[in-house]
Amino acid sequence: MELNPATLLELFWHSLSMWWLIIPAVMIGILMGAIPGFAAHNTIIMLLPLTLVFDVDLALTFMVALYCASHLGGGIPAILLNIPGTGGAAATTLDGYPMSRAGLAAKALALSFVASVVGGLITAGITLFLLPFLSQVGFHIRSVEMVVIMLFGLALIAAIAAQDMLKGLIAGAFGLMLGAMGADHIYATPRGTFGILELFDGVPLVPALIGLFAISEALVMLERRTIAKTNAAQVTPTWPQSLRNIFHAFKHGWTIAWSSVLGLVIGVLPGAGASIAAFVAYQQARIFSKTPEKFGTGHEPAIVAPEAANNGVTTGTLVPLLAIGIPGGSTAAVMMVVLQYHGVPFGPRLFITEPLLAYGVIMSMFVAYLFMLVTMFPMARYLSRITVVATYYMAPLIVAFTLVGAFVPRGFMTDIAIAVAFGVIGYVARKTGYHVAAILIGVILGPLIERSFLLTMRIHGNDLMALFSSPIGNVLWGLLALTLILPPILHRRAHRRGKAEADDVY
Amino acid sequence: MSLNDDRPKKPVGADLIIPVAASLYALYYVASVWDFPPEAQRSGIFLAAMLLLFSGLFFVRVGLMAVRGQARWDFSAVLGPTERRLHRAGFLGLIFVYLFVVEWGGFTLTTFAFLFAGSWLAGLRPPGKAALFAAVAALGGWLFFVVVLGTRFPVGPFERLVAMVPTPWS
Amino acid sequence: MPKPIRPTPPALPRRRFLQSSGAVVAGAAGLAALAGPGTAFGQAFPSRNLEIVIPTGVGGGADRDARAFTQVWGRHLDTNFEFGYYPGAAGQVGYEFYMNREPDAHSVLFANLGPEVIMLELQDTGIEIGRDIVYIQQTLSEPMAVWVGPNSPFRSIEHLVEEARRRPVTVSVSRLPHPASIGMLALGEELGVEFVLVPYGGGNPSAMAAITLEVDCCALPITNTIVLDDQARVLGVFADGNPTPAETDDAPTINAALGTAIPPLSSSRAWGIHRAAYDAYPERVQILKDSMAATLADPEYPDVVTGTGVPTAFIDAGDEAVAMATAESMRTLARRFRTLLSGS
Fold it and tell me: From A473's CA, which of A57, A176, A298, B141 has a CA 20 to 30 Å away?
């Protein structure tokens, strides 16, 4: 099937005709994405019995719409409550929550929604046309390059720890150490697990996320009356203000476009995911920013970059399934189950036997994002009110309901205890100046880096120089070095220049 | 009077909790992989060394401050402001109680009790209002998480009672 | 004491509706409750949903095969199926989790007699086959295969071995404790060449590594290559004969192509149950066994299996004696290669 304007229009109308399915899927996705632990893949598994009853094209449309919307939803609690709904939204908390505390939640939400929707539209559009090329990414970016890409994310620890570097490094290293818990990648022997079965597979991400962010935030929250230091009238914008907030967000178009493409490419890579993409995008936005010192204080580009990136990932993870026949992530794996159940072949054969279905999946994503465009207006206006609800309601509610979220992904009661343990760690860390996001980055990236590193070593006969054996890898190493070296130099130079100018004045 | 005495002393103590806990875990981790093949040990031992180095530097920093008389021992940072401190400690204790009770209390009853006591400790008055809030939220949570989503959260007396009540659609 | 409540089959094919769940997913039961199915007081066994514990992740081969089985099993056993996925530590997490379930025959394990038996032999799990768990019905068996991606320079197994004589050849495998890994190690030992096993932690990432040429070749159960169709070119099969030549590029057996004497290496799916349940509730176990056997004999079963992309040639019905013998042969192999597989 050739992708000419007529075919595209046909695909578009076909997807649009499923509005009755896409709209509820978007609503469910946003809601579930906003509840930690219920992110896309768990929700899709929960609803699998329902989706299997549908025809395959309806089922896939439902799933992709829900999947995309859940990434948008994940940013909502990250901004309003400092609780990321998914790992991919953890980077959003860094600047989203400071904005909320300053009474700018509505603006932060508008930035997040626009970044998510525009990022999703851009990447769905690119995927539609460049799918064959995107599928080649995996041929060029392998374990060696993955090590460097993840180090980019890890470099964020140094950035967010700028206030007290030593404490930041301790938090990051502690996270990495906790991330090294669980069965090793080669022999599958459990390490550092205290003999707890539920930790054999490593630190479960959702309970760790809920503990570090939600439980600890609830405990800290009790020291205040409300999250925002303002009243309901001040945090709720009028309709024209909401509209202005949304149009204002489009000013970050370039950051959105670049970050979403970064997310798309990272999403295509096996073993990567929304968390890595969001951390890397945040770090990149900071490097290219003229005001990097504002990152972490409630800076607008710092919200749009991770949100655009984690929505870019959604399309990316479908590429390996569609182009090669191998699911690139857990959500894609569930979609494969549906295709298998209906006896529909996947991979390149899907484009030969069912081209409408193959391209339709991507077009459905595009259409789902269009529908999200509409839903974001009321959400951007009213959701910010959460920040002025009294903490004596919010704190107990957050604990009670996020603990359910900690339980849901694996169904282990121990995961609730793990969440509470991480909650205590997170609380102590917050109160004593250690950044919880630095711990989380370590927990998420630690096992992934170890895996890629061990694979590289196995493949290249334990030769450490193999890490510098690939041209793309070497370019990435160079960029990483610049990332780490340039900012302090530029900062010092700017500082000196500022001082010189000040001296001139006086 | 020395210059040091003029400076406000920096509170230390509470910020040692994380590096001490992290170092202890690093040592336990190394012990747990001691007999493992090198590939299973390598990254863990590297990370442990890195963590112990950073923590060691931190301990030296704190030690130097103490020697110079710039530090004072103070663990109050971790406890937050003095106002309502006991209530917040009670709230944390309540979370631990929840962990032990939920297995037999089930989702709805435990959540109700937790929300009631938690919101009261957090400052919601009068108790009747806290009870109403807890009841509405617990029932809403039960409907959403247990009935609609079918989360396999532990079943307690409430869920068992509901299962026994004949419903119009049964 | 109230009688256990069991949902009755509703108008909508709810058994099909319910049979796909996840660790999280018993949600289906809740949804169904709202959807308005009836309840009934049923027979003694099963008195509630049958829980299926899968020691690997959702969307994997075990998931695919278990779902195919339950699609037909529901006709022969009047219950709903709840799936739970407990991947981790080469299957150890799933097994340990399963052992913690109530041993009342309402919880069964869908085992992979290859990698999981090897894991139980190599790791200090405290779980012993026969003493703690009994495999009561074998369903499918598939041989291990060596294969390459469509862009690989290797055209035959001889070509690959020739290269291995010059330099170590890298092989992506799901994990070290796996029959495919044993096959490659045995091949290397017999021919005096080095195959470097690179465990990717699952069939999908292993396949991806071979297709993108990160490694020289891949060793996995043969179904993976069939599902991948033209993305995989099979070079050799670790069996006495290639059971599916048409779907696997008419690949030769390793022994025939290279003159080696490697024992057949296969991975068999089987249903396992707690020994405690086996001893305490023999009548329940018998109901399970009979319904499983009836499922395998059902003419619809091969159709369902084919629908998932698995050739019917891999249907390998075997009773308890067969399944336990398969497990025992795998234990013997694991003991032989213990040093290489455990690194100690």
Answer: A176
